[in-house]
Amino acid sequence: MTNIDFLNLTDTISKLELEIGRECSHNNDEIAASEFFKASIINGNSDAEYKLAWMFENGIGVNKDLKTSFKLTENSALKGNKIGQYNLANWYEKEKQYGKAYEYYLKSAYNGLAIAQNKVGCILNENNISNMFKIEPNKELSIKFFEESAKQNYSMAQFNLALNYENKSNIDKNKTPTNEQINSIKKAIFWYNKAVENGIKEAKINLYLLTKKLHKMYNNISQMFCSSY
Question: Which residue among 125, 135, 193, 216 is least enclosed by CB atoms within 10 Å?
Answer without folding.
Answer: 216
